[in-house]
Structure formats: structure tokens, C-alpha cells
Design goal:
Length: 646
């Protein structure tokens, strides 16, 4: 029996476990990336491990999230990351060089290699045939120290692409269709592989758009084959030597398969407030648009922005629309400036932002009250834009540009003949904003620079024999990490300050939660399906840890957040019977009797609702290794106790 593309990469990197679906496997990691919103904590964790030099082939620290410097906090974090990178063997991408996923695709990604990043959209690298996965910062720190990255062996889902995209239909419409078919839970526990004759019709930037938003499926990652299209892209980047051919075997067996006919697709949009709330533009109708934002790691490539520039050329943005555009990298920005496309964008009335994540994480450009904002981004969770009642729609760059001109949601197919935008034979290459680390012989002389906003990792202890706690919060389905630990310009500067961040924990759901934690002490959070979807931010585990959350009991978890809870030493539990969710109310007194012994034996965990006098069976969603981690009080404690064996 042949192997899938992902299975081939896993087989060549597996260091522990067996390639059986659901089994715990450890993978050797070739490359890592961090960004500044998660990087400070990841590097504090790396320092705590005492490893002098990273052991990966390439680790890169990017500054692309907290680039709005309204105080000293962000600048201090950037200075700290730069000094850590210089000392410990990590390449440093300066602010202004671009969004981590766009730059990594352009300059560092290598087909067939493994990559984990402390950002959930790391699967963008799957666009060139990498096994690229989002992870918590602590997992990235362990990988930088030479440790394996542990996941449950995923199932394999093949998306068979047929046909060719029609004019004005884009890669964004492809992934929106897949989200419509599978939902935000449809990829959980799976790797999504794209195959079929339609693959060869898609450029690398288009493939990267699709793998980027695979994160919204809940998938472990998404991947395209490495073929002649990949080779041409890498050659244009001056990196043809990094190319290898890579595809699945003809007799590879998949657990699931769906088919998407590219030629049948029409422009789509994800409606508020979920990426899988997908409708055709015709079904939505010509709604009035207040704001359009083009960019993010999903749609900020040279190809995307050239298409936008061709639509805007010689025209003017509608007077009722605010249009902002953020190039994904300095490379893209420079090329637009040199060929005149940037002038067309500026002349049309667009506001050009720096090469950073910006509005995608609520870092500026929040829409007006109840405003309709069309965004080429990957997430439209409620409140993520920075405006609590903002109505955010996810669309393609073509739809965004057409709508910015018309003032209403507009099908780009009404614009007439589409301008052909060829891929460059040579990209403009200038890596002067990427700093090399100090040579190993000089690393001891490099000083780590810490600002007053940088606080230590929260202290944890071994799991108690019995946990007694109140259910201080009960939430519903599809709770995102934005709900648990919001982003935005007011909060992101404090990502290295867990005590301060704790004031905002679950602020979207219940602003009184932090105060209840301080009043009542240990707590258990109760939730519904797909708890913890969205960003990989480990702060959504570290801040509840700081507030005394001992366990999270839900119907089901999103992969990365579940792993982050275990890393932090918080016990992730699922109901054996989902109907038991209704048997717990907020503020009920709960107890986990003999929970330590239950975990040691690998058996079920009993949740006693002392308020109602009932017992509820639950399961710990943990591998054998994660059980040991939670018993020790988290991954850092486990690593300290077990050294290299960890």
C-alpha cells in the first residue's frame, strides 16, 4: 500500500510512535518560526530550558503582530526577541520585513521539511509541500532545543481538485467552498491533501492561500505536492536548489475524499461570525459596505495585490468606503513600488499600511459601529476586528477591490474581462531586513535585553490527588482563543505580562470571570463543541492557569488549544456523554476525586457535581506522554524532571 504525501514526510521524520491514526507520534522538526505576539513567551520558555543554541536547521523570529508602538511595551519585546535570537542562533526578521508566513514561504520554506510555528496559520508552508503545523510556544521552544514535536497521528483527507478556476474566481473561493463543505470542525484530527488535475492550474501563492485557511477547518495541516509549479516559484526566489519533487503514491489510501470542481465555483463570502458561514455573493446581495481591508497572511502576495491594483487602476474608491491595503512582505511592497502598481493603489484612494498583520488581529483599522467590513483575512470571529458589533465578511481580493469601488458587495465578474497577471520569472530579492545570529564563538558576549513589561512564566505544581473547584464559567460551542484571550491594540502589548493579561480573560464572554477567579480560587471551565478553535496563542492556556483554572470540561476540543492546556498543566476533559453538559450550571461546586490516581492508571475521570449530588463520567484527552506532563504540572516541569528523556 502506497503512502500519501504527508505520510511520506512523517515517515522520514518520525522519532517515536507508530503511524496509526490516533497514536501519539514524535516528529523531528527541521524549522521553526515565531511571531512577536507569541514569541516573547516562547523565548522565555526556551531560556528556562537552559539550551544554549537552537538545534534546528533554521529557526526564524518574526516581528509582524505588535508593530503598533503606542508605548514602550512592544518595542521592549522586540528588543528582547532580537537579543535572544542573536545569542541563541535564531534568524531575526525585523519589523517592516513582512508577515511571518508570507516571508517564510518566499525566503525559507523547503519542500519535504517539517516546520512548526507559534501561530496557527503556519500551514501556509504546505503551499510548497512542507509539513507545516501551528503549535503552542512551549512546543516550539522544545523543538528549538532539539526535542520532538508530539501530535496524534492524523487521518488523511484528500481534496480532489478538477477543472480550472473561471475568470474572477480565486483561491480564496476554493477554501471557502471547502469550509462550506466540511465546517470549522471538519478537519479536526486530519491532514488535508490537495491532489488532482486542478492542482497544476494553481500557482504557489494560490496554494498557500488555501493551506493558510486550512487552519479554519481545524486541520492538523494542509499540503500540496511539490511539482514543477513549486520549482518555478523557488527558482524565481533564487532558491531552486531547495526544490525536490514530492507527491503521494498512486495507490495511497485516504480515510476520506471529497471533490471540488474548480470550474464550477463562483465568488463566495464567509458571513459573520464564522469562516464556515459561507454563501454566494448572489445569495447575500448588494449590501452596503463601510470598510474594505486587503492583506493578511492569507491574501497579501504579489499576485493578490497586482490583481487588486489592476482593478483599482484609474478609478476611485467609493466615498462611503474606507479601503486599506497591507502588502505581505517588503519584497511584495518593493515590487509594487517598482512596477507602478503601488501608484495605482495610492491614486485610487487606498490607505497603504505597513507590511504586517495589522487589522487581521485588531491592530488598527477597526470598523465603525455595526459597520460592514469586507476582509481578505482568515477569521471573522465576533469582536476580533476591535469593534464588538462589527459585521465582518471574508472575501477574495478581487471581490474586495470591486466592492471598494462600488460601495456595495459586488461580484467581480461584473467588471468585464479579467486582466491576466503572470507570475514573475524573478522576484526582487533583498534580505537586508533579516539579521543573522551571532556566531557560536561570540554568543556568550551577547546580552539579553529585558524590559519591565516582561514577566516570568506562571509557576505550576504537580496535579493534586483530588481537585475541588467551582464551575466559574460555562460557555457554548465554538469558543475561540479570541474569546478566551482577546487580541487587539489595547491588549497585545501585554502578551509578555501574564498578570496584566489576566484582567481580560474571557472578556468577550464574561467580563466578571477574572474577578470571580480571584474571589473563589480554583475553578473549572465548562464548554461545548470545538472549544479553543482559532489562534495557537498559548496565552489562552497560560492566563487561565494564572487565574487558577485546574481543568476544562467540554464536549470536544480544537487540537492546538488542547495541547496547550496539557503543556500548561491544565487537565483537558471531555464528557463521555455530551448530554451531561446540561447537568452542570455556572457556579456549581465540582470535585474530581482521586483524579491523580485515575490519570496515572489511564482510566476515566469522575466529575462530582456536589451542588446537584450527581456524578458525571469524563475522559482525559491526553496521550501517555501528556498524562505524565499534566501529573508533573506541565511540560516545563516534565522537561526539567526528565531531561533528555522528555
Amino acid at each position: 500500500m502506497g503512502l500519501t504525501l504527508a505520510q511520506k514526510i512523517i515517515k522520514s521524520h518520525i522519532v517515536s510512535g507508530t503511524m496509526e491514526a490516533g497514536a501519539d507520534i514524535g516528529l523531528k522538526i527541521d524549522q521553526t518560526l515565531t511571531q512577536d505576539a507569541t514569541g516573547t513567551m516562547a523565548y522565555l520558555e526556551f531560556e528556562a530550558m537552559g539550551v544554549p543554541r537552537v538545534k534546528t536547521e533554521k529557526s526564524v523570529a518574526y516581528i509582524d503582530h505588535n508593530t503598533l508602538q503606542t508605548g514602550f511595551e512592544n518595542a521592549d519585546d522586540h528588543r528582547y526577541i532580537q537579543s535572544v535570537a542573536k545569542k541563541h542562533g535564531i534568524w531575526f526578521s525585523r519589523p517592516g520585513n513582512g508577515i511571518c508566513h508570507q516571508v517564510h514561504l518566499e525566503r525559507f520554506g523547503v519542500p519535504g521539511k517539517t516546520l512548526i510555528g507559534s501561530d496557527s496559520h503556519t500551514p501556509t508552508g504546505g503551499g510548497i509541500g512542507m509539513l507545516a503545523m501551528g503549535a503552542g510556544g512551549l512546543d516550539v521552544a522544545v523543538a528549538m532545543g532539539g526535542g520532538a514535536y508530539h501530535i496524534s497521528m492524523p487521518k488523511m483527507l484528500r481534496v480532489n481538485l478538477t477543472g480550472r478556476l473561471s475568470p474572477w474566481v480565486s483561491a480564496k473561493d476554493v477554501i471557502l467552498k471547502v469550509l462550506e463543505l466540511l465546517s470549522v470542525k471538519g478537519g479536526v484530527g486530519k491532514i488535508v491533501e490537495y491532489a488532482g488535475e486542478g492542482v497544476k492550474t494553481l500557482t504557489v501563492p494560490e496554494r498557500a492561500t488555501i493551506t493558510n485557511m486550512g487552519a479554519e477547518l481545524g486541520a492538523t495541516t494542509s499540503i500540496f505536492p511539490s511539482d514543477e509549479v513549486t520549482r518555478s516559484f523557488l527558482k524565481a526566489q533564487g532558491r531552486e536548489q531547495d526544490w525536490i519533487p514530492l507527491s503521494s503514491d498512486p495507490d495511497a489510501v485516504y480515510d476520506e475524499e471529497i471533490t471540488v470542481d474548480l470550474s464550477s465555483l463562483a465568488p463566495l463570502a464567509a458571513c459573520p461570525h464564522s469562516p464556515d458561514n459561507v454563501k454566494s455573493l448572489a445569495d447575500i446581495g448588494p449590501i452596503k459596505v463601510d470598510q474594505v481591508c486587503i492583506g493578511s497572511c492569507t491574501n497579501s502576495s504579489y499576485l493578490d495585490l497586482m490583481r487588486v491594483a489592476s482593478i483599482l487602476k484609474g478609478k476611485t474608491v467609493h466615498p462611503d468606503v474606507s479601503l486599506s491595503i497591507a502588502p505581505g512582505s517588503k519584497q511584495v511592497y518593493n515590487m509594487l513600488a517598482k512596477n507602478g502598481a503601488l501608484a495605482d493603489i495610492i491614486a485610487a484612494g487606498a490607505r497603504v499600511l505597513e507590511c504586517a498583520c495589522g487589522p487581521c488581529i485588531g491592530m488598527g483599522q477597526s470598523p465603525n459601529s455595526h459597520g460592514v467590513s469586507l476582509r481578505t483575512f482568515n477569521r471573522n470571529f465576533e469582536g476580533r476586528s476591535g469593534t464588538a458589533d462589527g459585521q465582518v465578511y471574508l472575501v477574495s481580493p478581487e471581490t474586495a477591490a470591486a466592492s471598494a469601488l462600488a460601495g456595495v458587495l459586488t461580484d467581480p465578474r461584473t467588471l468585464g474581462e479579467e486582466t491576466a497577471i503572470p507570475m514573475p520569472e524573478t522576484f526582487l530579492i533583498n534580505d537586508n531586513m533579516v539579521l543573522a545570529p551571532a556566531p557560536e564563538s561570540e554568543m556568550d558576549s551577547v546580552e539579553i535585553l529585558r524590559g519591565p513589561n516582561i514577566k516570568e512564566f506562571p509557576v505550576t505544581g504537580p496535579l493534586e490527588e483530588t481537585v475541588t473547584a467551582k464551575a466559574l464559567l460555562k460557555v457554548g460551542d465554538n469558543i475561540t482563543t479570541d474569546h478566551i484571550m482577546p487580541a487587539g491594540a489595547k491588549i497585545l502589548p501585554y502578551r509578555s505580562n501574564i498578570p496584566y493579561l489576566s484582567n481580560f480573560c474571557f472578556g468577550v464572554c464574561d467580563k466578571e470571570f477574572p474577578e470571580r477567579c480571584r474571589q473563589y480560587g480554583p475553578s473549572i471551565v465548562v464548554g461545548g463543541q470545538n472549544y479553543g478553535q482559532g489562534s495557537s496563542r498559548e496565552h489562552a492556556a497560560l492566563v487561565p492557569l494564572y487565574l487558577g483554572v485546574k481543568a476544562v470540561l467540554v464536549k470536544s476540543f480544537a487540537r492546538i488549544h488542547c495541547a496547550n492546556l496539557a503543556n500548561a498543566g491544565i487537565l483537558p476533559l471531555v464528557f463521555q456523554n455530551e448530554a451531561d453538559y446540561d447537568r452542570i450550571d455556572q457556579m456549581d461546586d465540582l470535585e474530581l476525586p482521586g483524579v491523580r490516581e485515575a490519570l496515572e492508571k489511564g482510566g476515566p475521570v469522575t466529575v462530582v457535581n456536589k451542588t446537584k449530588g450527581i456524578s458525571i463520567p469524563a475522559e482525559a484527552v491526553l496521550s501517555e506522554r501528556q498524562r505524565k506532563m499534566v501529573l508533573a504540572g506541565g511540560l516545563l516541569n516534565y522537561t526539567r524532571e526528565n531531561g533528555q528523556d522528555a
